[in-house]
Design goal:
heterodimer; A: 6-stranded antiparallel β-sheet; 39 helices; 17 strands; 55% helix; 13% strand; B: alpha+beta; two-stranded antiparallel ribbon; membrane (chain A); TBP_dom_sf (chain A); Clathrin/coatomer_adapt-like_N (chain A); repeat (chain A); cytoplasm (chain A)
């Protein structure tokens, strides 16, 4: 045994591989042998193989070296040895991308291409096309046309495939080969048929009508090649998709008929296409599903009798089927399949079993959850991270679908957290737990406990800090907050600086929120003041000093509610401040606030979407305002309005299919509003100049300046701005503006875009633009509303009661209130627990000018509608007044 | 050891991509193969052909092969979703054959290419599908790969046709053109080489049966 092992070792050291320790320079040196006469085919073949091998290993060869080797290689055309000649073709193809003057071999290759040796002709054509550029294409065109219709299949295939490669560059020449391609589709050889169809489609794909004809022609005349069938199915599916047609399309009939083809490949392609089509109904889907169902169950006798090889193939089929079913958007049709899936959940191939279970989880009902989770937990350790993430995503959707099952699911997630796994996998679990905690109050304590346990042994700093932040936010509001402090303080002792800092912040939040824990927290924080890391020490010192003041307002402002300005904005403002030093201290209120990324939670509910797009989306939402700020600063007339307070989302002020398409964005500054009109000219025979939007201001508002868009050509968006001063009366903030688009029209040639000399003035009436209270406030999330409520104090409090008679549900009332007032709902108070008839909505934000604004709306539902008691607190009396009247 | 573990976890972290279960429709195109490769039982490349820009540099290609090998060399599942690609594979003794396509590609098409590839190599190596034999016939293997797939388009999917096109060298030099000495040298060599080969393959077989 020992000697065997040693023997193996020696072999691994390269004894077994004669190509192992090849040096590029030596091999290229050896290639000079090619110049010797007479040629020794075996020896040269060997050397050429070595050259191919080192290229294949990814060794990079310089241009001079390659050119030298290439020219040596051309000498080998003198030998008639078939293997050697074929290796030369391979060499030419590899070198054609690196070496210079490769067209030198054209004539040799053309000789082979038209020669008597059938064996050489196909490969010679392919090699020729790799050295040919478009200028040369003309000279070989005649031969290519002949080759396409050649009776030797290999030649015909080679020509067709090469034509496809050449067609990637320019369509022009190969377009002329359409008749030959047409003829080749009728070939008896399956591959020629496939390649010819590919070429034919490539030539015609821009002409929809021609493609339509192509499909209907070949769907009637039965093709031999399964590959050609698959291609035809894809073309047909694309047509259906483009025409937005459903099952009534003749194309669909064709795809459906392919479900009865004899080749599994074609049946599967057809079923795949049907399932992927957008407009399919359950009825259209049924035949596809039943075929897939057959795939699911057919291998079972084979499983019992056949050899391993067949077995693997069966798995593969089932895997395909399952993948389709998971992707399916028609659960009703899938239910029919569930019985077959049940048989697969104990499958030996874990990938298949996992897919089967997750499919069942997504389509099944609440009662089956326990059993399936138990089944899947038996082999979680055996499947790859990719599939584990699929499982976690399935669980996430389950958590929101069956909130009562949170116990089972949470335990399962906790178990998964403890097991081995990469960062993405762990992150997915943690995200899943966090969403569940946020959505489901009952799951909160269990979830937090699991997360606490997880950070005890967590190697990912990002996840640890994320969880500590969550603990700081949610922990203080649980019935027994003290039990979390131990977990958090352990991090202070054991972890790296980033995690320690996060832990310090979390402890401070407990201290700020829970009076009875305040003293203990201060003691812990004082110990952290001796930390080795600056950041941790600084944070601890800061928090200790704030907490020792024992003022609710201070703790709320500096500990519980973090920084609410946009980070990019702050950076810019600070930079500006350092450039122009002044006596006055830096004013944080001049910094634009961070916009709440609204879409964040919603996206989470759709598992299986392409996850990579999510982070980018959030990022855009968060920095949209910063982008606007930058844009506005580019316009000299608007540069000195101060910091941008808020930008509204775009509102269309025209119908989308009219002559001119205009969108309006309102940018609120301290004393001004800038209306940004993004205009698009949809007429290709007009060019607009000096475009402005004239506005009829509401009372108190005053139009200061119009900044025209100098030129608006066809389909190129342009922007014009209107600057309006806000009324001096602080409570007068709303108004309606009538808008007219004014411009100078010049007719122009639709083709060239060349405008006439003279133009005429014209105008176009736009819809009115409303300025509402919501435009003057910025949403700010106050994690702890009660503390903030106390922080602002009752000084400017206003209270009023309204009867909202036209609202029939609490949800409807809440949506409307948020829309009118434009503040951020806090503490998830925008969600009404089921079956409640009374609810309190908490809203928070900042009014233009940097005044904090808080609204508490107590809602009660009775027979006559919704009654609301609205209480507004603010740091400015006028603001309270404005907000209190916003709903009225 | 700990350090190694950590490294491993970092590696997986970088390469885990979530599978997009929603296949979507494929653009109709005869280009269906992204790569074919043969690796040895240490995951080293013996042959690799990449047909598009999914992995533009040799470094990325090798990293992909390494990871793919690590994922597949123990399980005999024949198909895997990996880094957002569908890979079908097959192994024998110390060789691993892979065919890679887009995750939306018809798996049966990929499998048919894999089987054509494997079967033609198997015929070329006279059923002796292992690394040593493969390296001895590397020229024919390169040619077979070239006949199988041309820049991503399946050129021929019938293994018999591929073997026929490759036309492996039988006794190609006519006897008349050789000197007696050459012949004795050659056949003597061949006889001893043949004995060696038989012994070696017997040895290999015993070894593998012991190691398994």
């Amino acid at each position: 045994m020992l000697s065997l092992k040693r023997d193996k070792k020696e072999e691994e050291d390269g004894g077994g591989n004669p190509f192992n320790n090849l040096e590029k320079s030596t091999v290229l040196q050896e290639a000079r042998t090619f110049n010797e006469t007479p040629i020794n085919p075996r020896k040269c073949g060997n050397i050429l193989t070595k050259v191919l091998y080192i290229i294949n290993q990814g060794e990079s060869i310089g241009q001079t070296e390659a050119t030298e080797a290439f020219f040596a290689m051309t000498k080998l055309f003198q030998s008639k040895d078939p293997i050697l000649r074929r290796l030369v073709y391979l060499g030419i193809k590899e070198m054609s991308k690196i070496a210079q003057d490769v067209i030198i071999v054209t004539s040799s290759l053309m000789k082979d291409m038209t020669g008597k040796e059938d064996q050489f002709r196909g490969p010679a054509i392919r090699a020729l096309c790799s050295v040919t550029d478009h200028s040369m294409l003309q000279s070989i065109e005649r031969y290519m046309k002949q080759a396409i219709v050649d009776k030797v299949p290999a030649v015909s295939s080679a020509a067709l495939v090469s034509a496809l490669h050449l067609g990637k560059g320019s369509q022009e020449v190969i377009k002329r080969w359409v008749n030959e391609a047409q003829e080749a589709v009728n070939s008896d050889n399956v591959m020629v048929q496939f390649h010819a169809l590919g070429l034919l489609y490539h030539i015609r794909k821009t002409d929809k009508l021609a493609v339509n004809k192509l499909v209907s022609k070949f769907s009637k005349q039965s093709l031999k090649s399964p590959y050609a069938y698959c291609l035809l199915i894809r073309i047909a599916a694309k047509l259906i998709e483009e025409e937005d047609a459903g099952s009534e399309s003749p194309m669909f009939d064709f795809i459906e008929s392919c479900l009865r083809h004899k080749s599994e490949m074609v049946i599967y392609e057809a079923a795949h296409a049907i399932v992927q089509l957008k407009n399919t109904t359950a009825k259209d889907l049924a035949p596809a599903v039943s075929v897939l169902q057959l795939f699911c169950s057919s291998p079972k006798p084979t499983l019992r009798f056949a050899a391993v090889r067949t077995l693997n193939k069966a798995y593969e089929l089932m895997l395909n089927v399952l993948k389709l079913l998971v992707a399916i958007k028609h659960p009703a049709a899938v239910t029919a399949c569930n019985l077959d899936l049940e048989n697969l959940i104990t499958d030996v191939n874990r990938s298949i079993a996992t897919l089967a279970i997750t499919t069942l989880l997504k389509t099944g009902n609440e009662s089956s959850v326990d059993r399936l989770m138990k089944q899947i937990s038996t082999f979680m350790s055996e499947i790859s991270d990719e599939f584990k993430i699929v499982v976690v995503q399935a669980i996430r959707s389950l958590c929101s679908k069956f909130p009562r099952k949170h116990n089972v699911l949470m335990t399962f997630l906790a178990q998964m957290l403890r097991d081995e796994g990469g960062f993405d996998y762990k992150k997915e679990i943690v995200d899943c737990i966090i969403t569940t905690i946020e959505d489901n109050v009952e799951a909160k304590e269990a979830g937090l406990a699991h997360l606490c346990e997880f950070i005890e042994d967590c190697e990912h700093t990002v996840l640890a800090t994320k969880i500590l932040h969550l603990l700081g936010r949610e922990g203080p509001r649980t019935p027994s907050p003290s039990k979390y402090i131990r977990f958090i303080y352990n991090r202070v002792i054991l972890e790296n600086a980033a995690v320690r800092a996060a832990a310090v912040s979390a402890i401070a939040k407990f201290g700020a929120h829970c009076d009875d824990l305040l003293n203990s927290c201060v003691v812990l924080l004082e110990r952290c003041q001796l930390d080795t890391d600056d950041e941790v020490r600084d944070r601890a010192t800061f928090y200790v000093n704030v907490l020792k003041q024992k003022q609710k307002a201070l703790s709320s402002a500096y500990i519980l509610n973090g920084l609410q300005v946009s980070v990019v904005g702050l950076e810019r403002a600070l930079h500006q401040y350092t450039l122009e030093p002044s006596e006055a201290p830096f004013d944080l209120k001049s910094v634009p606030l961070a916009t709440q990324p609204i879409a964040e939670q919603k996206v989470r509910d759709v598992p299986g979407e392409v996850p990579s797009s999510k982070p980018t989306q959030d990022k855009v939402a968060a920095s949209r305002q910063d982008v606007y700020q930058e844009q506005l600063a580019q316009v000299p007339e608007l540069a000195n309005l101060g910091a941008l307070f808020k930008s509204s989302s775009p509102v269309e002020v025209t119908e989308s299919e009219t002559e001119y398409y205009v969108q309006c964005i309102k940018h609120t500054f301290n004393n001004y509003i800038v209306f940004q009109f993004d205009c698009t000219n949809t007429l290709n025979d007009q060019q607009l100049e000096r475009v402005t939007v004239e506005m009829e201001p509401a009372e108190g508002f005053e139009v200061i300046k119009y900044i025209p868009c100098p030129l608006l050509t066809y389909n190129k968006p342009g922007t014009t701005y209107t600057l309006v001063r806000l009324p001096s009366e602080p409570t007068q903030v709303t108004g309606t503006f009538a808008c007219v688009l004014k411009f100078l029209v010049k007719d122009c040639d639709p083709q060239t875009g060349e405008p006439d000399e003279d133009g005429y003035d014209d105008e176009y009436v736009l819809e009115d633009v409303e300025v509402s209270v919501a435009d003057h406030v910025q949403k700010v999330m106050k994690p702890n509303f009660a503390a903030s409520w106390e922080e602002v104090g009752p000084e400017n409090e206003l209270e009023d009661t309204y009867a909202l008679s036209n609202m029939s549900t609490l949800e409807e009332a809440i949506t409307n209130i948020i829309q009118y007032i434009g503040l951020q709902p806090c503490e998830r108070s925008d969600k009404v627990p089921e079956g409640k008839s009374a609810h309190t909505l908490y809203l928070a934000g900042v009014f233009r000018g940097g005044h904090d604004a808080l609204v508490r709306a107590k809602l009660a539902l009775d027979t006559s509608g919704v009654t609301m008691q609205l209480t507004v607190r603010s740091t400015d009396p006028h603001v309270s007044e404005v907000l209190a009247t916003a709903v009225a | 050891m700990n350090f190694n573990l950590l490294r491993a976890s970092i590696d997986t972290r970088r390469h885990v991509k979530t599978i997009n279960m929603d296949g979507g429709l494929l653009e109709p195109s005869p280009y269906s193969i992204k790569a074919i490769t043969i690796l040895d039982n240490d995951g080293n490349r013996l042959l690799a052909k990449y047909y598009d820009e999914t992995f533009p540099t040799a470094k990325e290609q090798k990293a992909f092969e390494k990871n793919l090998f690590n994922k597949t060399h123990r399980a005999n599942a024949e198909i895997i979703m990996f880094e957002g690609l569908t890979c079908v594979y097959k192994s024998n003794v110390d060789l691993f054959f892979y065919v890679v396509g887009s995750s939306m590609e018809n798996e049966l098409i990929l499998a048919s290419v894999l089987h054509a590839f494997y079967d033609s190599i198997s015929q070329i190596l006279r059923k002796n599908v292992e690394k040593r034999a493969l390296l001895d016939n590397l020229d024919a293997v390169f040619l077979a790969a070239d006949e199988l797939c041309d820049q991503g388009i399946i050129l021929e999917a019938d293994s018999n046709a591929i073997v026929q096109k490759v036309a492996i060298r039988n006794e190609d030099i006519p006897l008349g053109e050789q000197t007696m000495a050459q012949i004795t040298a050659k056949y003597g060599q061949q006889v001893s080489a043949a004995t060696d080969r038989v012994l070696q393959s017997a040895k290999d077989q015993i070894k593998w049966s012991l190691l398994k």
